[in-house]
What we know:
Elements: H1 22-30, E1 33-36, E2 39-42, H2 45-53
Antiparallel strand pairs: 1-2
Amino acid sequence: MATQPTTLHLDISNAYFRMDSEEVRKARDAHWYARTDWGIAVLRYEDSSALLKSPLLTQGSAK
């Protein structure tokens, strides 16, 4: 049985957080998204582009 990759938590509210940090690179290498205090952060352009084009994706507050 294959194990799922672990998603990392990014503290994007930290004043010192940077998208070009080693922390984000490690999270991107581990998985296509990371967890944040406000939900998920999609870390790869290709994945975010595919999600935005998908009719299955809806904004949570739209419901």
